[in-house]
Amino acid sequence: MGLWKTSWMVLQCWLFLGLCLRVVHCDTSQVSVKFWKTPRAFSNLNSAEFAFQVFVGDNCSPCASCLTNCTLDHRTPSRCDTRKVSFVGLKDGNHTFEVCSNRGRRIGCARYNWTVDTIPPTAYITAATSFTNTINVSVNISFSEPCSGGGGFGCSSTNSCNVSTCSL
């Protein structure tokens, strides 16, 4: 009887060890997505190109077998296993591009937000007086919208800033 209990216990230990090793070995790798190419955060183009790579595991190995889906502005996802996606005809406003990739039961996603603004701002130039024959005159230049992302007005020289205006 003692041999039977010992054999049964050894079998249960091997079974438990086998299950533990299988759980540790399978699906423990993390899936992550890294963007290589994106549009600028504020873009004046109505098109966008994305390039990305999917990585798996603690050592961040590229995952060629991972299934990848992409979506623009929370629409229906579509397969994008080529890791390159482009869009044309984008409307002005905020956009969101999301990539989700999976390997087994593990899923990794990355999201990129940007704004398309294809309408340039209008500049308004005003002065204290409409007509003058002085060499220097102060002017106020304002824009119809904020000039973010390094835009705006600047003079190429601090000694001379030629501003030409036309009035009909």
Question: How would you characterize this protein structure?
Answer:
It is a single chain. The chain has 168 residues and is mostly beta strands. It has one helix and eleven strands; from the N terminus they run αβββββββββββ. It has a five-stranded mixed sheet with strand order 2-9-8-5-6, with no helix packed on it. Strands 1, 3, 4 and 7 form a four-stranded antiparallel sheet that branches. A hairpin with a 2-residue loop joins β8 (93-103) and β9. The chain is elongated, with a radius of gyration of 30 Å. The termini are far apart.
In short:
The protein has one helix at 2-25; strands at residues 31-37, 42-43, 48-56, 61-62, 67-72, 78-79, 84-87, 93-103, 106-116, 123-127, 139-143. The chain is mainly β and 168 residues long.
Strand content: 35-45%
Number of separate helices: 1
Provide the spatial order of strands within the biggest beta sheet.
2-9-8-5-6
- Range of helix content: 10-25%
Approximate shape: elongated
Which structural category do the helix and sheet elements fall into? mainly beta
Low-confidence runs (pLDDT<50, min 5 residues)?
A: 3-28
Strand tally is: 11
What is the end-to-end distance? 113 Å
Biggest sheet descriptor:
5 strands, mixed
User: Could you report the average pLDDT, rounded to the nearest whole number?
Assistant: 76
